[in-house]
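Two entries, shown back to back:
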Amino acid sequence: MTSPGEDRSPARPGSAPAGRDVVLAVGLVGICVGGLAVFLKAVGVADVAGAGGSVVPIAMAVLITVGVAVARWSVAPVRRPTPVRRPSAPDAYAHPAPQVPDVAGEALDHAAVDADGFEHTVAALCARDGCTPVEVVGGAGDLGADVVATTADGLRLVFQCKHYADGNRVGSQDLQRFGGTCFAVHEADVAVVVTTSSFTAPAAEYAAACGIVCIDGEALAAWTDQTAPPPWQASAPGPDREPVERTSTA
C-alpha cells in the first residue's frame, strides 16, 4: 500500500542508461579539454601568439562542436523494438488420440459389412477383448496392415483383413506379401490374416512356416461369439501345450 503523496508514477525504462550516457559525454569532453591543453603546451604559447592568436579560437570552436554533438548523442532516447507477441496456436504436429472402436452388437457383425467395414469389425473385436489402442490403418500404401492393436500385456498385433466370398480363398501370394512386411516393417509381435472365407493349403503352409496366424470364416465366427479365445491368445503356446491350429484348408 502506498502512503499519501507518494509518487506512484512508474519509473521510465531507460533512465539509468541515459544517466550513464551523460557521464560518458562529460568524460569525453574532459578528455578533449585535456588534449587541447597538451596541444597548447606542446606548440608553445609563443608560437600560438605568433600565429596571430587564431589557433586557440579555432581549437575551442572544434572542442565545443564535438562536445555538443556527443551530448546530443548521449541523451537522445534509444528506440528499442517492441517485441511482437504472437497468439498461441494449437500444435500443428499434434496427433489426435485414436478413437476407441464401437463394440456394440452391430459393430461386431462382419456378415453385414463390406470390405472397409470388415476392417472396423476386426478392430471392434480387438477392442472388445481388451486391446488398446486399436487403429484401423488400412488404405493406399498400408503395406499390408489393416488394423494395428496392442494387447493388455503389451503385444503388438498387426492384422490383414480379407473380406472374401466363400468361394474365393486366400492364396499363398496374399500371405507372402503380408509376410514380407508384417514383422520387418510393422514390427508385429503377432501377425494375423483374418478372412470371411478360407485359405488354400499352400497359404496355410506358408503362414505356419513364417509364424503368421490364419483366422478363417469358421474361426472368425467362434472368435465373434466368444466360443474361442482371441487369435493372439490361441496362437501363443503355453508351457504345457502346443500352438493351436486355427485354420481350415478344406
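entry 2 starts here
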Amino acid sequence: MYVTASSAALAAISGLGFGLSLIVAIGAQNAFVLRQGLRGQHVLAVVAVCAVSDVVLIAAGVGGLGVVVQSAPVALTVIRYAGAAFLMGYGVLAARRAFAAASLTTESTGATVALGATVLTCLALTWLNPHVYLDTVLLLGSFANTYASPDRWFLGAGAMLASVLWFTALGYGARKLGPLFARPSAWRVLDSVIAAVMFTLALGLLLTS
C-alpha cells in the first residue's frame, strides 16, 4: 500500500504523543527507574529492560494481540492478582526502608543490589503489571488499528521512541536531583511515596472488577 511521507510522519508524531501520555505518570515502573537513577545503580540495565519490554508490548498491540487478549479474560485475571501480590510486597519493602533505622543513611552509601536481582525486580514490575498491558497492548493497539496498515507501524514506532526517550531521561536525569537526595530525610520521603504508590496500585488491581 502506498504511504506518503506526510502521513507516515503524522502517524509517528501521533504515536509519540500518545505513548508519552500513557507512560508519563506515577507508577510502579517509573518509581523503580527513578529510584535506581538516584542511586546510580544498574541504570543502563533498568532503562534497557523497561524500554525493550515496551517495544515488545507495543509491537504486539500494533500487530493485533490486543484482540486476542480481550478474548482471554482469565489470563488478565491471573496477571492482575499476581501483579497485586508483587506490588504489595514491594510496597512493604519500601515502607520498611522508610521507617527502619537504616534509612537514616543515604542510599549512595548503602549496599548495592546485585544486577540479577535488580533486573528481575524490574521485569516483575513491568510484566506483572496489568496496567502495562492495558496501556500498550489494548489502548495503544486499539488506537493504532484506526490507521491503515503501513501508517499503523509508523505510529507504533513513534510510541516506541517515546518509551525509549522517557526511560532514558528518567533514569539518567534523576542524577540532577542528587543534591536534594544527599539528605537522608529525602530518601525517607521518596520511599514513603513509593510505598504509597505500590499499595494504591495493588488495591486498585484487587478492587478492579
